[in-house]
Amino acid sequence: MEVIIFKDQQTASKKISAFIKAKLQKKKGLVLGMATGKTPLNLYEELIKKYEKGMMDFKDVSTFNLDEYYGLNSEDKNSYCYYMRENLLKKINIDQENCHIPNANSQDVPAHCLQYEQKIREKGGIDIQILGIGSEGHIGFNEPASSLVSRTRMKTLTQQTIKDNSIYFDDKKSVPIHVITMGLGTIMEAKEILLMAFGDSKSEAILNTVEGPLTSMVPASILQMHPKATIVLDEKAAKQLKRREYYQWVYNNRPSWQIGI
Ligand code: PGA
């Protein structure tokens, strides 16, 4: 696990977008795992800017989103379908056929989840999975006590997540309780993982993820078992890390062949 600390979200998002651009130059048909929420918004803006300047071509790229609220239709402005369309997908030259988000209205959820996993496999797996993190350490909507080997399925949100996410809803009581989310086992199969966290409210979850024990009580701690997971933070999210200086030392002294983000 590599921990990289930037001064702020803008700097981190620029670096990650440059990293994705470099990966896209090597593989036209890149498969990206996408996250929603406020954390990746700057990153998506940076990707759009690079596309508009002719620096990135998304024609052959595929995307798979981590999760979706169950029961919201794709026109609902709180759905992650709407979020992805408005914040990225309609602003780049991606083929909409290649953009996948769990179907929030599926009548047969277990069958749909199996198909979602199958589609990921058919694309050859996810090359880069972007992740945010919840204040209690969830990734995707894998809440504390999620099985560490779980697959795509329906989950019930914790009251903390419902509270955290209610800020986006006009009617605070209308946050769906159920979601469809990739499992921790699904996420762990991505070839490379970039988890981003910004702000004080994420610092405890980051401490537990990076320096705490591996436990399903902090689902993101499973990333300790991933061979290529990078945790990209701003100073506020990193503030509780005990070995912060060491992570910075490692980053500043990377051998040239290792340069990534
Ligand atoms: P946020 O959500 O980016 O809106 O903080 C992150 C998450 O819940 O995974």
How is the secondary structure organized here?
Blueprint: E1 2-6, H1 9-26, E2 31-34, H2 41-52, E3 62-65, E4 67-69, H3 80-87, E5 99-100, H4 109-122, E6 128-131, E7 153-156, H5 159-165, E8 178-181, H6 184-188, E9 192-197, H7 203-211, E10 229-234, H8 244-252
Parallel strand pairs: 1-10, 2-3, 2-6, 3-5, 6-9, 9-10
Antiparallel strand pairs: 4-8, 7-8
Helix pairs in contact: 1-2
Bound molecules: 2-phosphoglycolic acid.
Task: Please tell me about this protein's structure.
This protein has 8 helices and 10 strands. α1 crosses α2. The protein is globular, with a radius of gyration of 17 Å. The two termini are 13 Å apart. It has 261 residues and is an alpha/beta fold. The model has no long low-confidence stretch (mean pLDDT 97). The structure holds 2-phosphoglycolic acid (PGA).
Question: Helices and strands, in N-to-C order?
Answer: EHEHEEHEHEEHEHEHEH
* Number of H/I helices: 8
Question: What's the mean pLDDT score?
Answer: 97
Tell me the β content.
15-25%
Shape: globular
Instruction: Write down the Rg.
Output: 17 Å
Q: What's the β-strand tally?
A: 10
| Assembly state | single chain
Q: State the distance separating the first and last CA atoms.
A: 13 Å
Sheet bearing the most strands, described?
Answer: 7 strands, parallel
